[in-house]
């Protein structure tokens, strides 16, 4: 159970980081356009 929760937390953080990265790319694209 603990390992599962730990992995879930890591996946959640990784997903948030990925969303933030894609968000930055979107802002950059809008800046270019």
UniProtKB/TrEMBL annotation:
Pfam family, one: HTH_13
InterPro entries tied to this protein: HTH_DNA-bd
HTH DNA binding domain mapped to chain residues: 8-33
Keywords attached to this entry: Plasmid
Protein known as: HTH DNA binding domain-containing protein
């Amino acid at each position: 159970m603990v390992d599962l929760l730990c992995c879930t937390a890591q996946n959640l953080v990784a997903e948030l980081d990925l969303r933030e990265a894609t968000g930055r790319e979107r802002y950059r694209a809008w800046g270019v356009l």
